[in-house]
Specification:
By secondary structure, the protein is an alpha/beta fold. The chain is built from 17 helices and six strands. Strands 2-3-1-4-5-6 form a six-stranded mixed β-sheet, with helices on both faces.
């Protein structure tokens, strides 16, 4: 007969084996959820007449200047002969497609959409400048008839405003000129049969001004699920509201990241420290999403003719200033310390579940870390935007960050 000690050892080993299999299975399922989020595709067709500023708009929406080596080529003549995808620098599954120019004498909207493979795109941006043309109406009708959404972009409005100021300096009023341009575009589209057209006035060189925030909010409101998440992360967050939307979209998925880190640490014999690389990667991605990494700050400083040092000074959070394994570990240790009593209770009464409880403590610590990082990065990003563009936005930077309350799972 086996000794009681041996039976207890067998029971402990069996419990660890079952626990390991459960943890591995749940880990796989959580990773699948995260993979589906990261692999979501978004294809945006950008079309319009030659010289309307399509390529410049594509570069601006990707957060790049026209001089960037990764930028779509621009020029006074048509540079696009076939549909050309330009992936977002940080989100390769988000693609903006530069489509061949319209408006030539031989242009036929139906044949054009067939050539560019209409079904490939989630929606279209129809870009026009200077004046409304018949080709715009033809293309709008064809896109709508095919069941695809389109948004009419009146580009280069900064140039329109400069011309209007020269023509009537004594009577110039920016708001009135913009309203007149918008009303004319809507009237022209409705006259040609477009129902309730959405018109947005933009400048590829001043994306934070005019109608871009409204376009961003409209697109986010009309996309669902993972595509909406991809859009919110991809389009430049140049207003406080866009920063808030990005934060909220990321916040909804914190529990998945925290749970995965927790499950890694819950495997028998593996320490909590193995969660750190996973969490480091997530925090670094948050930092890039809010434009707080060095490359993003330099690019923004160049775009607004400011000093990178001046913008960097607005980054006040500890993890925003210095992201290191030691800093992440310090935050985890602080959160995990509060759960040591639960771990001692588990060892005394439920020895087989000790590792899972330890994993639960790791989950709380990981969630608190990611929640705090997200809140503080959003506050940093709003301060950077205010310094870059020189104007306060409604909604001041967030209040000081604290670990989430006990009901954070239900937020």
């Amino acid at each position: 007969m086996q000794s009681p000690e041996l039976r207890e050892q067998d029971l402990s080993e069996m419990g660890s084996l079952v626990q390991s299999r459960v943890v591995l299975e749940v880990s796989s399922q959580v990773q699948t959820l995260l993979d589906s989020l990261d692999s979501a595709t978004l294809d945006i067709g950008v079309t319009g007449e030659s010289g309307a500023g399509k390529s410049t708009l594509i570069n601006a929406l990707r957060g790049l200047s026209d001089s960037d080596p990764r930028a779509a080529p621009t020029g006074v003549v048509e540079t696009t002969a076939a549909p050309t995808p330009y992936p977002h620098p940080g989100l390769p599954n988000v693609r903006l497609w530069d489509l061949p120019g319209t408006g030539t004498p031989s242009f036929r909207a139906e044949r054009y959409l067939e050539q560019v493979e209409l079904e490939r795109y989630d929606f279209f941006l129809l870009v026009a400048s200077e004046r409304f043309r018949e080709s715009h109406a033809q293309l709008a009708r064809a896109v709508a008839a095919a069941g695809k959404r389109f948004y009419f972009i009146r580009s280069k409005v900064d140039q329109d405003l400069q011309a209007s100021r020269r023509r009537r300096p004594a009577r110039f009023e920016e708001g009135q000129v913009l309203a007149e341009i918008r009303a004319d575009c809507i009237w022209q589209l409705e006259k040609e049969g477009a129902a309730a057209p959405r018109v947005f006035l933009l400048s590829g060189f001043q994306l934070h001004r005019y109608d871009f925030p409204r376009l961003q909010a409209t697109l986010a409101g009309e996309l669902d699920g993972h595509k909406r998440h991809a859009l919110l992360l991809a389009l430049p967050a140049v207003t406080a509201d866009a920063v808030r939307q990005r934060k909220e979209s990321l916040r909804r998925h914190i529990w998945k990241k925290a749970l995965l880190a927790c499950l890694v640490s819950a495997l028998p014999g593996l320490p909590l420290q193995l969660s750190v690389p996973l969490l480091m990667e997530t925090v670094a991605s948050y930092r890039r999403s809010f434009g707080l990494d060095e490359e993003s700050l330099r690019a923004l400083a160049g775009a607004v003719a400011s000093s990178p040092r001046r913008l960097r000074a607005q980054v006040r959070s500890a993890l925003g200033r210095e992201l290191s394994p030691a800093a992440v570990q310090d935050v985890l240790n602080q959160a995990a310390f509060c759960g040591q009593a639960a771990a001692r209770l588990a060892r005394a009464r439920l020895p087989l579940l000790e590792n899972l409880v330890a994993g639960g403590i790791s989950f709380v610590a990981a969630y608190a870390l990611l929640h705090s990082a997200l809140e503080s990065f959003a506050g940093d990003a709003q301060r950077v935007l205010e310094a870059a563009y020189g104007s306060g936005d409604e909604g001041a930077p967030g209040s000081p960050c604290y670990p989430p309350h006990p009901g954070f799972l239900y937020d």
